[in-house]
Amino acid sequence: METKKKYFMDCHLAGVLYHEANEVWEHLKPGTPLRLVRELDNRHDPNAVAVVYDHKEADEEVCIGYIPRHANEVIALLLEMGWTHIFDCRIRQLCPDAHPERQVQLVIKVKRNLDN
């Protein structure tokens, strides 16, 4: 049996203080799925990859932070080249009492291309 997903990386969510994680905090828990969105026009980071929570109750997308700059280059390249559904990003752990840049730990896996 072939694996449907393989581990790619762990990282902490960056920029929590500057985005809307606190507005949806009660909806976030380990295992919560998140989307990775390439931001080509981000003036702070040429490889910016936003982490988005799809808030279904409010019918809106909420940017809760970013993949850290030291870890976003490969993800940015793949997203920019149209591989928008290659990653499965989920919350691994929440630590509300930690420093904001350490409150949300993510796990990112690569999904198998089922078209091949």
Overall 3D shape: globular
* Structural domains: how many: 1
Assign the structural class, choosing from mainly alpha, mainly beta, alpha/beta, alpha+beta, or little secondary structure: mainly beta
Helix tally? 2
CATH architectural grouping: 2-Layer Sandwich
| Quaternary state of the chains | single chain
Q: Can you tell me the CATH class?
A: Alpha Beta
Main beta sheet strand tally, sense and closure = 6 strands, antiparallel
Strand order of the largest sheet: 1-6-5-2-3-4
Helix content: 10-25%
Beta-strand percent range: 35-45%
What is Rg?
Answer: 14 Å
List the helices and strands and how they pair.
Blueprint: E1 5-12, H1 21-24, E2 33-38, E3 49-55, E4 60-66, H2 73-80, E5 87-94, E6 104-111
Descriptive keywords:
116 residues; mainly beta; Alpha-Beta Plaits; 6 strands; 10% helix; globular
Structure described in brief:
This protein is mainly β and 116 residues long. It is 10% helix and 38% strand. The chain is globular, with a radius of gyration of 14 Å.
Can you walk through the features of this model?
With 116 residues, the protein is mostly beta strands. The protein has one domain: Alpha-Beta Plaits (2-Layer Sandwich). It has two helices and six strands; from the N terminus they run E-H-E-E-E-H-E-E. Strands 1-6-5-2-3-4 form a six-stranded antiparallel β-sheet.
